[in-house]
Fold this protein.
Amino acid sequence: MQGLISIADLDKNKINEILKLSKLFKDGLRKKTLDGKVIASCFFENSTRTRLSFESAVVHLGGSTIGFADSSATSLATKGESLADTFKILSCYADALIIRHPLDGSARLASEICDIPVINAGDGANQHPTQTLLDLFSIMDSQGRLEGIKLGIMGDLKFGRTVHSLVEAVKWFGMQLYFIAPKHLRMGDEELFNLKTSGIQYSFHNSLDEVAHELDCLYLTRLQKERFVDEVISDTYKVNLASLANVKPNFKILHPLPRQEELPVEIDNTPYAYYFEQAQNGLYVRQALLDILFTNGSID
Ligand code: CP
């Protein structure tokens, strides 16, 4: 059985199938499919949304979870057990493994070692494919379409794994991208090359004010301070009420959360705030993923 390591493992048809099924879960039209299944939820790095929405999804589907939210209590941390052996042992006790780890490539390593499906819940600055699926679902649910969406992406585009996964998926939907980031946190050359190769239009901007009136959605990210030296983000890369004065009526702000100073709470009461519903959408999308995995035997 195949799990999900990278958003690149999914083609357009499969993404659309996941989004369609997610909508059925959101509308309460699909029920339990995980009876008797045990899912290992193993988080070697902190999480609130991804871990709890996955675990809630398993419970809603009739399965049960084992695992940990703090790997300092495992033999890996205290007895020198290798990461490879840890993965091997986890696969002895569960039908699928959901893993978050601070190292790029760790989920791929787990999938090569384990003989159960592995779902990547975030590996370092590399990928966060289930976040991308819920981001796409949120754009679709709030805009009624994915094709041709004008999407601003603002903040830390260099270290943010959610944006790395997201830009890999937009190629299927012909979105137009507006990158708004400080020079030293711009999107990497590899991602830009891939976008160019896929014919996706993108442009660089110094502030939200330059482009806010053109956007359908703004995808905002925080500084990934845990991945590089501490610094502060300038006011140019924060949303404020004035910067939203001329946005389109359908405009929505998405954020994978947690937020910091880039998204002040004063924005929460505007009609543009969609990020809490986006976080809730994570439950439906993760239900859909697990449903497909155990109904079809594979996600991709
Ligand atoms: N969006 C996201 O990955 O949040 P958590 O780190 O809380 O899981």
About this structure: The radius of gyration is 19 Å. Strands lie at 38-43, 64-68, 96-101, 118-123, 150-154, 176-180, 202-205, 217-220, 252-254. The mean pLDDT is 94.
